[in-house]
């Protein structure tokens, strides 16, 4: 490691964020679990016993095998198989990767739109502020699921299931991202309204800096703390939205497993005794959302000295 890298690491270790993190056992445990799940999803092709996308590795005769420890189980399938004969452990690893990709992708889109519109509304004010905030108010009157259901249903009816399956990931990222930007925009706008009255902004204006430079290089860095908190929680919300849409048949198709589509695929087999097809992916989804929310709560408390009790 270079001297500059070591100095940055030393500064981080001395920071309040690191100090509060190493004293919070819940945050540490949540981070370890989340990091394990993210790494498992990233390296799914290396860790998964089988490739759920490869039809040559799927045998319908192995369908609905129970997890190891139950009668009729097969050691080759530790968590059992689904109704198509796919190894459930493999589909969960690949499905977690899809859910995380949609969650992070949607939040990146939310942040891009929210930061841009929030900066413009807060700094420029006047008619720009009124128009952007009224658009945000109208959009907030509709729930994410309602917008996603309408757009997804129209797209699916217009282009068919085959076309929808090919672009399902991008469609879900777009739908969830566009539906949730007003929350970030309002937060950024409120921060900008407070920051633009400070002396460093007046100094930048006197020095003749352009509006774009003042907004993005001077004001934006001082408004990032609440954005990090919102973005963390929004990742969990995006993953839940994807699971809900997949369960309704408007998300990922069963041929491209996500945690939501896995839960949906096994829902019809619960009463026949194959409970693991839905239950195990459901538990993984609950744990994933829980640890992200716990990290978001910790980050919120740390970045707000009025709330932090560490």
From TrEMBL:
It is found in: Cell membrane. Keywords: Cell membrane, Membrane, Transmembrane, Transmembrane helix, Transport. PROSITE patterns: ABC_TM1 (PS50928). Residues 96-296 form the ABC transmembrane type-1 domain. The keyword Cell membrane applies. One of its GO terms (cellular component) is plasma membrane. InterPro entries: BP-dependent_transpt_permease, MetI-like, MetI-like_sf, OppC_N. One of its GO terms (biological process) is transmembrane transport. Pfam families: BPD_transp_1, OppC_N. The chain crosses the membrane at residues 26-48, 98-123, 135-155, 161-179, 219-240, 275-296. It is a multi-pass membrane protein. Belongs to the binding-protein-dependent transport system permease family. This is Binding-protein-dependent transport systems inner membrane component. The lineage of its organism: Bacteria, Pseudomonadati, Pseudomonadota, Gammaproteobacteria, Pseudomonadales.
